[in-house]
Each structure stands twice: as structure tokens, then as C-alpha cells.
């Protein structure tokens, strides 16, 4: 038996934020990040719509990018004191993911972070509050997914929390919120979305329900991402829908080792002054993982289907896989994303010598590889890598060398 689970309601299109006016409840907490939603007026609008619905509203603000366990615990304590019956998270993946984890802790105060990370092991939520997610980036699709990514900075590891219990009750996909994204954020979040769709399409947990969403998302992202990056606002609006479709695909169809590797490298070099931003990590690793997974016959065929939908040239599946890899690398070039960790600058742009020194990478490699294998996303990848293969794959992602194993 498989399961296909989505929010009860997805309000979408320009003006969808106004759906907040129709919510029923007494108290709502709005969870928000560092300032972009406030600066562009969306926070005030959300607050006034909820007040119009007759609710008392409090704001928990300042959730940092790649949120920490500490922030989650702080937010949960805030909720326990205020006792909201609605949690409304507004912003990118970071504040929405943090709010999802806060929700678990609010409903079950005795839960530890370790408990939360047991895959599909959460108790029933919604005994205290319902959850609405309003996304302002076009990538993570956390507004529709069963996942939340929280970083343990002591260990330098991102942990995915995965359970259909944290699939939001309501998603608001209003493209107006995405129009204020700076170009770099468009590039990274857009490549994240494309990775979601491609990984979901070859995942061992895929189904006809998830395939339909994944393929349509891939077609839309091919048509609109680079234009959106170049400030075409119609394309930007389309991308907000496309990333949500990709989210619907991977929430039930799951992901693969591009994400395992991105989760385990993201914060692994934070002591060298930067993160490898999630979407940029995916954009660099995806072509390598496609080459690795294509050694599996079923995966190869499915990459061939993707290439067909993208109208790429190729007389057979091997040629189509090669064309797909080249196309994706071309997208990185068009959006100023490097091809490998070695050339990944602290500002995320391509540079001769990136912020991760070679000897530090090699020293940490065995542990990163072991952690990536243990990541929740590895189980649904079409090929299960050994420790040796994962280390080789990560090396290819560091040096931009060809994957031939
Ligand atoms: N839950 C999931 O299923 C899932 C999937 C993929 C990634 N993630 C996680 O999500 C996080 C990344 O989320 P993200 O990529 O959405 O970015 P983010 O939420 O970390 O935001 C990045 C920056 O962009 C700003 N920003 C957000 N929206 C904006 C807008 N409309 N205009 C201007 N600035 C804006 C924020 O203030 C912040 O400074 C990572 O922690 C990643 O691991 C989660
Ligand atoms: Zn992702």
C-alpha cells in the first residue's frame, strides 16, 4: 500500500493570502524569519487578515535561515505560553520548517529533538492547533510537504523530520510573495525544486500520482526558471506553482541521494565561514547523481523519459542521460551556480578557490559519506551506494570529475 497525502486546501494565485480572512479560531501565532516579509508588507497583511477573522494574533519573529534546534525550542515555548489554535508560518523554507517542528513540541512538550527525527514516527498532531504555511520562495514547497529540515549546529548536520502528520492543513501559494525574491534566491530555490521533481520521478517510492506532478513540474521549470531568474514576472509566478507541484510529487514520492548529500554537506564546513546553500548544493550534485543512478536500468529509462518531455536530443537512453546532464549544467551556468564544491565561493558564486579547503574536505569525507548514507532520503534512491561509492561520488562533487562507477 502507498499513500498520497496533501494539505486539505491549497489556495493559489495572486491574492491567495486573503484566504486567511476565512480562517476560524481564537488565537493565531505567525512564525516569520528575519525581515523580508515585514519589509515587503506581507507580515502586516497576514496579521490584519487574521484579525479580520476575529483572532488574537502574536508574532514569533527572527527565525534564521537553516533554523537551529534552539530556535525550535524557543518558538515552542512561546506557543505554549500563548496557546494558539492556528500556527501560520510565512516565508521561505526556513521559517516554515522551524514552525513545523515548533508545532510538534507545542503539541507534545515532552518530545525531544531526537524523538522528532524518527522517520514517520510522530504522534497525532492537531490536538491543540492547525497549521497553515504561506511560502515566499519558489523551491522547498514545504507548504505542502511532510518534511521539515532542522540543523543541529553542534554536530554540523541537517536532520530531516519526516511524517505526514506535519503536512500543513492549509497551503497558501500566492505568487506575489515570490516576486520580491533576489536573483540568487530564485536560482537556488528553483534548482532545489527541479531536483525535487527529478528525484521524485526516479524514486523507488514513486507512483502514478507523484509522476504526474513531477513531470509537469519539470516541464514548467524548464520553461520558466531561467526567465524567472532574469526577472520575467510571469515566469516568476509560474515557478511558484511549478515548485509546489514538485513538492506534491516528492512529499509522497520521496527523494534520493542528491538531497542526502546536500543535507550532510550543507553545514559541514560552517566553521570555514559559510554554508553550502541547499539549492546550490543540489544544483551541483544532481548531474553527478544522475550519472551514478543511470547505472540502474529502471532509473536510466526514467531519465530518458524526462529528457523526452524536455525535448532533448538522444538516439537512446544513454545519449538522453548525457543530454539531460549537459542541460542541467547549462542551467547552472546561466544562473551563476558553480559546478562543484571546490569552486563554490563563500558568496555561493563560482570562484577559482572556494571556501572549502581541499584537505579539510578530504579529512571530513568519510564521516560526511557515512552520514549521507544514513540520511532519510537515501532509502528511496534507485541505487544504494556503499561507503566507498558515496565517498567517490562526493569527490566527483568536489572536483567536478566524471562519474564512471
Ligand atoms: N521541508 C522541506 O521539504 C524542505 C525541502 C527543501 C529544503 N528545505 C530547507 O529549507 C531551507 C531553505 O529554504 P529557502 O530556500 O526557502 O530559503 P530560506 O527560508 O532559508 O530564506 C533564505 C533568505 O531569503 C529571504 N527571503 C525569503 N523569501 C523572500 C522573498 N520573497 N523576497 C525576498 N527575500 C526573501 C529570507 O529572509 C532569507 O534571508 C533549508 O533549511 C533547507 O534545508 C526544506
Ligand atoms: Zn530540497
Structural account:
- This protein has helices spanning 36-39, 42-52, 69-82, 93-107, 113-116, 183-202, 208-229, 233-253, 257-266, 278-293, 297-309, 317-334, 358-374, 387-399; strands spanning 9-12, 27-32, 56-60, 86-91, 130-135, 147-152, 157-162, 170-173.
- It has 405 residues and is α/β, with parallel strands linked by helices.
- It folds into two domains: 9-178, Rossmann fold (3-Layer(aba) Sandwich); 183-399, Dehydroquinate synthase-like, alpha domain.
- The strands form two sheets. A six-stranded parallel beta sheet has the order 1-8-5-4-2-3, with helices on both faces.
- The longest helix is centred in the middle third of the chain and has 22 residues, at 208-229.
- The two termini are 33 Å apart.
- It binds nicotinamide-adenine-dinucleotide and zinc ion.
Helix-strand topology string: EEHHEHEHHEEEEHHHHHHHHH
The end-to-end distance, rounded to whole angstroms, is 33 Å
CATH class placement of the largest domain: Mainly Alpha
Count of domain modules: 2
Q: Kindly provide the radius of gyration, computed on alpha-carbon positions and rounded to a whole number of angstroms.
A: 20 Å
**Level-2 CATH architecture of the largest domain:** Up-down Bundle
The count of β-strands is 8
What fraction strand?
A: 5-15%
Helix content: 40-55%
Average pLDDT number: 97
Annotated CATH topology of the largest domain: Dehydroquinate synthase-like, alpha domain
Amino acid at each position: 500500500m502507498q499513500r498520497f497525502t496533501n494539505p486539505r486546501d491549497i489556495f493559489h494565485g495572486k491574492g491567495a493570502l486573503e484566504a486567511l480572512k476565512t480562517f476560524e479560531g481564537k488565537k493565531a501565532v505567525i512564525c516569520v524569519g528575519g525581515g523580508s516579509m515585514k519589509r515587503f508588507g506581507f507580515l502586516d497583511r497576514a496579521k490584519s487578515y487574521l484579525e479580520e477573522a476575529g483572532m488574537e494574533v502574536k508574532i514569533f519573529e527572527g527565525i534564521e535561515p537553516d533554523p537551529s534546534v534552539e530556535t525550535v525550542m524557543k518558538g515552542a515555548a512561546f506557543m505554549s505560553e500563548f496557546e494558539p489554535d492556528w500556527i501560520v508560518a510565512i516565508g521561505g523554507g526556513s521559517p516554515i520548517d522551524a514552525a513545523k517542528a515548533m508545532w510538534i513540541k507545542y503539541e507534545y512538550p515532552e518530545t525531544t529533538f531526537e524523538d522528532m527525527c524518527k522517520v514517520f514516527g510522530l504522534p497525532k498532531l492537531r490536538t491543540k492547533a492547525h497549521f497553515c504555511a504561506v511560502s515566499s520562495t519558489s523551491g522547498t514547497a514545504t507548504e505542502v510537504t511532510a518534511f521539515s529540515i532542522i540543523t543541529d549546529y553542534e554536530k554540523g548536520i541537517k536532520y530531516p523530520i519526516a511524517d505526514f502528520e506535519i503536512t500543513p492543513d492549509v497551503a497558501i501559494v500566492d505568487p506575489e510573495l515570490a516576486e520580491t525574491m533576489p536573483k540568487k534566491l530564485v536560482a537556488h530555490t528553483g534548482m532545489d525544486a527541479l531536483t525535487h521533481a527529478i528525484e521524485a520521478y526516479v524514486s523507488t517510492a514513486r507512483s502514478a500520482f507523484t509522476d504526474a506532478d513531477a513531470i509537469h513540474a519539470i516541464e514548467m521549470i524548464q520553461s520558466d526558471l531561467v526567465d524567472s531568474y532574469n526577472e520575467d514576472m510571469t515566469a516568476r509566478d509560474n515557478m511558484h506553482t511549478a515548485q509546489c507541484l514538485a513538492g506534491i510529487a516528492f512529499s509522497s514520492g520521496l527523494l534520493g541521494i542528491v538531497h542526502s548529500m546536500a543535507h550532510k554537506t550543507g553545514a559541514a564546513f560552517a566553521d570555514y565561514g559559510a554554508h553550502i546553500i541547499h539549492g546550490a548544493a543540489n544544483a551541483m550534485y544532481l548531474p553527478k547523481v544522475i550519472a551514478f543512478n543511470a547505472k540502474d536500468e529502471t532509473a536510466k529509462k526514467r531519465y530518458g523519459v524526462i529528457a523526452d518531455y524536455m525535448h532533448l536530443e538522444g538516439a537512446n537512453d544513454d545519449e538522453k542521460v548525457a543530454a539531460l546532464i549537459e542541460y542541467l549544467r547549462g542551467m547552472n551556468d546561466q544562473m551563476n551556480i558553480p559546478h562543484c564544491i571546490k569552486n563554490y565561493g563563500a558568496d555561493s558564486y563560482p570562484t577559482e578557490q572556494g571556501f572549502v579547503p581541499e584537505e579539510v574536505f578530504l579529512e571530513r569525507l568519510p564521516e560526511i559519506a557515512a552520514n549521507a548514507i544514513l540520511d532519510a532520503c537515501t532509502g528511496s534512491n534507485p541505487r544504494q551506494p556503499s561507503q566507498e561509492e558515496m565517498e567517490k561520488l562526493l569527490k566527483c562533487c568536489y572536483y567536478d570529475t566524471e562519474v564512471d562507477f
